[in-house]
Amino acid sequence: MMRWIYWLGWLTFRSGFRTLFGLRVRGLERLIRTGPVLVVSNHQSFLDPPLIGGLYRDEMHFLARKTLFRGIFKWIYRQWNAVPVDQEKPDMSSLKTIIRTLKEGHRVLVFPEGARTMDGSLGEAQPGVGLIAVKAAVPIQPIRIRGAREALPRGSGRIRLERIELHIGEPIILTPDDLKQLRGKDGYQEAADRLMQAISEL
């Protein structure tokens, strides 16, 4: 059962996205609905985590900037399954938490770019997502977000009523050979680049 605070956020955001932004979802039949899955997406806006979380009827885990965990929001973000990450001084602890969460059978959302886009273009993938993909060895679901930057640009606190679309790609399964070859710094970067390429093609 979803915790009530997660359910309340899920219901509020899901209804709001369809009402305010006319949310459209393409490729919903490709969505992996059961079992552990690493969901990877481009990052356009603060709206992105609930946008993708609303696709599912059970809980999702995701990374969130450490500075957001203050006051009452520290409790709220914990209830929303957010894992704090220090973008200024990244370490392995958050990555290990995500890998463990995936191996325990949960769904996790990660943004390979690491930060929201400034101009709408796709950024470079960070090797950390490649490490997660290889170490966790679970199915990967690429998703591309369009319109969220226009609805809530980085650096802006004003929401605009723009159309938002989610494009869901075919699941990616790393083969045993992939898991052997994509090791070390270069291998993790190659894995991350593959995932970013899959997102870019949606």
UniProtKB/TrEMBL annotation:
Name the keywords, alphabetized.
Acyltransferase, Transferase
Question: Where would I find the Phospholipid/glycerol acyltransferase domain in this sequence?
Answer: 37-148
GO MF, one annotated term? acyltransferase activity
Write down the SMART domains for this protein, in alphabetical order: PlsC
Checking InterPro entries in the record gives: Plipid/glycerol_acylTrfase
Q: Does the keyword Acyltransferase apply?
A: yes
Q: Which CDD domains match?
A: LPLAT_AGPAT-like
**Pathway note:** Lipid metabolism
The record's listing under PANTHER family reads: 1-ACYL-SN-GLYCEROL-3-PHOSPHATE ACYLTRANSFERASE (PTHR10434:SF40)
Can you name this protein? Lysophospholipid acyltransferases (LPLATs)
Q: Which organism is it from?
A: Haloferula helveola
Lineage of the native species?
Bacteria, Pseudomonadati, Verrucomicrobiota, Verrucomicrobiia, Verrucomicrobiales
